[in-house]
Write a structure and sequence with these properties.
The complex is a heterodimer. Chain A is an all-alpha fold. Chain A has one domain. Chain A is about 60% helix and about 0% strand. The longest helix of chain A has 22 residues. Chain A is globular, with a radius of gyration of 19 Å. Chain B folds into 2 domains: about 90 residues, no CATH class; about 100 residues, no CATH class. Chain B contains 8 helices and no strands. Chain B is globular and about 50 Å long. In chain B, about 50% of the residues are buried. Classes of the chains: A mainly alpha, B mainly alpha. At the A-B interface, helix 1, helix 2, helix 3, helix 4 and helix 5 of A face helix 2, helix 3, helix 4, helix 5 and helix 6 of B.
Chain lengths: ~160, ~190
């Protein structure tokens, strides 16, 4: 899969991005966005239905995604698969201190997820789907991430 | 076949396909599937301020993620323009009845226009849903170290204890909004 042509960009010496890689990321994002819209994961109404436990749809999507991802990763580890460029595959563990950040941050995220009806992936997909006021929510989410970045030293983790 | 493509996709098609993104991304690129770090990279690329959190080489570690989320946006365009996406959502009649009891009347799109339109942005409920909701999603995801993709899918699939804790937090927050905040808001 490695491109026979080498990039003439000056960034070639840095661990930058090859054009083929860029197209892979864009293309995979596009397919993911299509899936999010066509399965109605981006729907505010679906998220309400999930939090009211009134249908299996969302739980089925997340649950089956976890099972498929888990089985695939177990297989990749078992056969010691490498990337198509032959680099070793490793998934770094999520950092864990006392669990305060997962619980408090998780609750903050959940409060927002319920209000906005969209987690980060669907935020992008909704803008593309023409629900343009969600662009304001994206800026707001960036501000939220920015605020966390500046408060991090003072917050319990 | 065309009809199947244009109608909404059931969970047993969409869920496993979304799950396949984790091994596919790993095989093609070595990257761990996750979306909310794009918010961090976007800050690092534009207004890092004085935070240590944003001081790193975002081009090396984050450019892939930014391209991925631009792709998600393009996917939203394709789904609606070419594949018949965009609603109405096929929610259960129980959910519809609950939301009607809260005062929502319009169910033809992906979002209730009472909250998510440019004119509602200046109303109290619209502002809270869009601006406060967005802020909490960004703040909470970064504080928790991931969102639905990084924690609930990649994290749970690799049996990571912190991710289970975060997902429990997601649901506590979501239930508080659904049964506490929304009735006050609508």
């Amino acid at each position: 899969m490695a491109s026979p042509r080498t990039s003439t960009h000056s960034s070639e010496t840095r661990p930058g991005l090859r054009l083929a890689d860029a197209l892979i990321y864009l293309g995979m994002g596009t397919i993911f966005g299509i899936l999010l819209v066509k399965s109605e994961v981006v729907s505010w109404f679906r998220i309400q239905e999930m939090f009211r436990f009134q249908a299996f749809h969302m739980n089925g999507i997340i649950g089956s995604a976890v099972v498929v991802a888990g089985a695939s990763i177990a297989l990749l580890r078992r056969i010691q698969a490498t990337t198509i460029r032959g680099e070793p595959i490793s998934i770094s563990d999520k950092p864990f201190e006392r669990g305060v950040n997962q619980i408090v941050g998780g609750i903050a995220f959940g409060l927002g997820w319920g209000l906005l009806g969209a987690c980060p992936g669907p935020i992008y997909a909704l803008i593309g789907a023409g629900v343009t006021p969600v662009a304001v929510a994206l800026l707001s989410a960036m501000l939220g991430a920015w605020t966390y970045g500046h408060l991090k030293p003072y917050l319990p983790h | 076949m065309g009809d199947l493509l244009l109608s909404s996709w059931p969970w047993y098609i969409a869920g496993p396909l979304i799950g396949l993104f984790v091994p596919l991304l790993l095989l093609l690129t070595g990257k761990a599937f996750g979306v909310s770090s794009s918010l961090k990279h976007a800050c690092a690329a534009t207004v890092p301020g004085r935070a240590e959190y944003f001081r790193y080489d975002w081009k090396a570690s984050g450019l892939w993620n930014l391209l991925f989320v631009i792709g998600i946006l393009l996917g939203g365009v394709v789904a609606v323009q070419l594949l018949g996406g965009g609603g109405p959502t096929g929610i259960s009649s129980a959910t519809k009845a609950d939301l009607q009891a809260l005062g929502l009347t319009e169910f033809s799109g992906l979002v209730p226009p009472e909250l998510f339109s440019w004119s509602s942005l200046t109303t109290g409920p619209g502002f809270v849903a869009i601006v406060l909701g967005g802020f909490l999603v960004g703040f909470g995801a970064r504080y928790a170290g991931g969102c639905t993709s990084g924690h609930a899918i990649t994290g749970l699939a690799t049996l990571q204890w912190p991710s289970l804790l975060a997902v429990v937090g997601f649901f506590i927050g979501g239930l508080l909004t659904t049964y506490g905040l929304l009735p006050l808001l609508l």
